[in-house]
Design brief:
By secondary structure, the chain is an alpha/beta fold. The protein has two domains: about 260 residues, Periplasmic binding protein-like II (D-Maltodextrin-Binding Protein, domain 2, 3-Layer(aba) Sandwich); about 110 residues, D-Maltodextrin-Binding Protein, domain 2 (3-Layer(aba) Sandwich). About 40% of the residues lie in helices and about 15% in strands. It has a five-stranded mixed beta sheet with strand order 2-1-3-10-4, sandwiched between helices. A five-stranded mixed beta sheet has the order 7-6-8-5-9. Helix 8 runs parallel beside helix 9 and helix 12 packs across helix 17. It binds calcium ion.
Length: about 450
């Protein structure tokens, strides 16, 4: 441990010194008064530092991802050269074995062989920031910087439960869930990491149907690669995760899909790009350069004519290592839900990366962070006295997103001016207003918090 600390101290000290030298050289150098586009880049790559003054403080960064569609903009930014276009010529986009490994690598940081930033379920960056999910409750200050995607998640159910009305509206399936519980074989469903999106989606869905997720079913955490295997062997009745995994259950005739998250909450917040605050603070220009690269990738991914190439890239061995046949239907919004439900064929019901019916996908609305934290309070994962507003104002850096978007020449019409997207409405008629989370909590029948 002391070795690591010492190494880290040495790294930080030397990085600061190197940064100071680079800055001095830049200011006094021959390019000081030239446009950034004219300055030479390391390695002889063409300099296209689009917008935003001098080049980034570093060109090197390590970013973690999980092989689900939410990581698409990070992979595309790398593969299509959008990071390099904004001066980030040495980005490593590193596959993580599981969400726990992603968290641990983030805690280590790149100087220890880990990562500086990553794709995140929410409110994972907040839980790391507060030391709620780290070893010895170590607090790692974090920033939430951009939303990578909306929708593209679902709830898959084992085929043995077909014909029991386990669909979007669960109210008609309640007697069946009660029957399973009474028989000592409660419905058992999995998510891939506790207290974040995929557990929150399945909890919301169950509770909306009158099923108490803490009393009437068994919820467990299972690593992503085990979800499909456990459904095959019958040890699990359902799971909640990102595409293409739920749809694989239908494709492989293991079961059906009860619901798309796009049906539960159209254009809902899904996963995010976040970074260690120390890295972003030391490298503000590099942070914005990364955001510009991701934003350009998001715009590119949302062009329907590019989706085939997106699928080709994701299917690669170093990324998802899955066939294009598996990835194509959910990436194009084509879901055969199964169990007698009408098929969906609408690209707007699949994952979206830049714009949706409610405006910007990429912009990290504070109102959405507030919903995730409120949902943690609802289920007893965070104490009710948590100062949600103060936490969101510290961790959410929509200001950096805005600066990056302006520097990248994003039209004003695509840059939100409000920190809230307004009142959100769920499929069961419940509404959420980030200005009054208590009203939302009070309106919910099933919850663990007393409000
Ligand atoms: Ca997800």
């Amino acid at each position: 441990m002391s070795k690591v600390s010492r190494r880290r101290f040495l790294y930080t000290a030397s990085a600061t010194a190197a940064g100071a030298i680079a800055l001095k050289g830049c200011t006094a150098g021959p390019n000081a008064n030239q446009s950034p586009a004219a300055s030479p880049q390391a390695g002889g790559a063409p300099a296209v530092n689009v917008g935003g003054g001098e080049g980034p403080e570093t060109t090197t960064v390590r970013i973690g991802y999980i092989p689900i569609f939410e990581s698409t903009p990070l992979i595309i930014a790398q593969e299509k050269g959008f990071f390099a276009k904004y001066g980030m010529t040495d980005v490593s986009v590193v596959k993580q074995a599981a969400w726990g490994a992603l968290r641990d690598n983030l805690v280590i940081g790149s100087q220890g062989g880990g990562i500086d930033g990553a794709q995140f379920q929410m409110p994972m960056p907040y839980l790391i920031h507060e030391g709620k999910i780290t070893t010895a409750n170590q607090k790692i200050p974090m920033y939430v910087l951009l939303q990578t995607s909306t929708q593209g998640n679902g709830i898959a159910i084992a085929g043995k439960h077909a014909g029991k009305n386990i669909h979007l509206d669960l109210t008609r399936a309640k007697p069946y869930f009660d029957q399973l519980k009474a028989a000592g074989t409660p419905f058992t469903a999995a998510y891939t990491f506790p207290a974040v999106n995929q557990e929150l989606w399945i909890r919301y869905w169950l509770a909306a149907g009158g099923i108490d997720p803490d009393e009437d079913v068994k919820l467990i955490a299972v690593p992503p690669p085990q979800t499909v295997a456990n459904m095959k062997t019958g040890t699990m009745d359902g799971f909640s995760t990102g595409d293409p995994w739920p749809y694989r259950i239908v494709q492989e005739n293991i079961g059906f899909m009860a619901a798309l998250t796009a049906q539960m909450w159209p254009d809902h917040p899904e996963e995010y790009f976040g970074m260690r605050a120390d890295w972003a603070d030391q490298h503000p220009k590099a942070t914005k350069a990364l955001l510009k690269g991701i934003m350009e990738a998001q715009q590119w991914c949302d062009q329907p004519e590019n989706r085939t190439e997106v699928i080709q890239i994701l299917s690669g061995r170093q990324y998802f290592n899955l066939s294009e046949e598996i990835l194509t239907p959910p990436m194009k919004g084509e879901y055969n839900l199964g169990d007698g439900q009408p098929a969906i064929n609408d690209i707007k019901m699949g994952p979206l990366f830049w714009k949706d019916a409610k405006g910007s996908v990429s912009y990290p609305y504070k109102s959405h962070d507030t919903w995730f934290l409120t949902e943690n309070i609802r289920w007893g994962m965070l104490p009710p006295e948590t100062d949600v507003k103060a936490l969101v104002d510290t961790v959410n850096r929509e200001d950096i997103w805005k600066e990056a978007a302006k520097e990248a020449g994003i039209p004003d019409a695509d840059i939100p001016t409000e920190t809230t997207r307004g009142v959100e409405r769920f499929f069961d008629g419940i509404t959420f207003d980030a200005n009054d989370p208590m009203a939302y909590l009070r309106s919910l029948k099933i919850k663990k918090v007393n409000v």
